[in-house]
Design goal:
Elements lengths: L7 H9 L7 H11 L4 E4 L6 H12 L11 E4 L3 H15 L6 E3 L6 H9 L4 E4 L1 H9 L10 E4 L8 H11 L6 E6 L4 H4 L10 E4 L4
Parallel strand pairs: 1-6, 1-7, 2-4, 2-5, 3-4, 5-6
Helix pairs in contact: 2-3, 3-4, 6-7
Length: 206
């Protein structure tokens, strides 16, 4: 498999970055994620998980802005991760209309609410910040199509775990993709909450 079946905008971006062939993880994960299934993606560091997340998210959104409410969620551990992913997404959304927003606890919630209200497509945030936005009616989750969780091991922390579970209970229909280096039993328990009938992509360390 090559990257040929992705949106043309993404193929152009990959060409700009001189990325010609997918990694083993990307070969195995991208088609399954594109199918719309919930997926546990388990692979070691530097397997191409971040690029897979960005490509599949933007492909799902057809690389275009639509409406005002976010259609994609990217959940990460903290502010530094939010900003890291924000910068990574901007490289791929350049020359497109897709609007990406960085949301984190240190940014005043009223500022976030007013900026999100102006219209976004991809919301990158933490579980606690998302929960706070949701409780204050600061974000609409009615249009969500895909929610990706990066380096999900941090969710083993009780407060983060609870914040995510509580928020996802209010999301009616959404595809979930969870990325991690190892499948901790506590992460696998998400099958009982929002990862129903999930498929598994596992690449072992060499």
């Amino acid at each position: 498999m090559s990257f040929k079946k992705l949106h043309p905008h993404l193929l152009e971006a990959l060409e700009r970055f001189s990325i010609e062939e997918p990694t083993l993880f990307q070969k195995n994960s991208i088609p399954i994620i594109k199918s719309g299934a919930n997926v546990f993606c388990i692979a070691p560091k530097d397997s191409g998980k971040t690029t897979s997340l960005i490509l599949t998210t933007l492909h799902k959104l057809k690389c275009e802005a639509v409406g005002n409410a976010p259609r994609a969620l990217v959940i990460v551990e903290n502010k530094s991760k939010v900003l890291e992913f924000y910068d990574a997404f901007l490289k791929y959304t350049k020359y497109s209309s897709v609007r990406v927003y960085a949301s984190y606890e240190q940014l005043h919630i009223d500022v976030q609410k007013s900026e999100i209200y102006m219209g976004i497509d991809v919301l990158i945030t933490t579980p606690k910040t998302l929960h706070k936005l949701f409780l204050s009616n600061g974000v609409s989750i009615s249009e969500l199509k895909i929610c990706s969780i990066e380096d999900a091991e941090f969710l083993i922390q009780k407060s983060e775990y609870t914040a995510l579970i509580t928020t996802t209970q209010s999301i009616r229909k959404c595809q979930y993709v969870l990325y991690a280096e190892a499948l901790d039993p506590r992460l696998k328990r998400f099958e009982d909450y929002f990862m129903e009938r999930a498929r598994f992509v596992e690449i072992e360390k060499k």
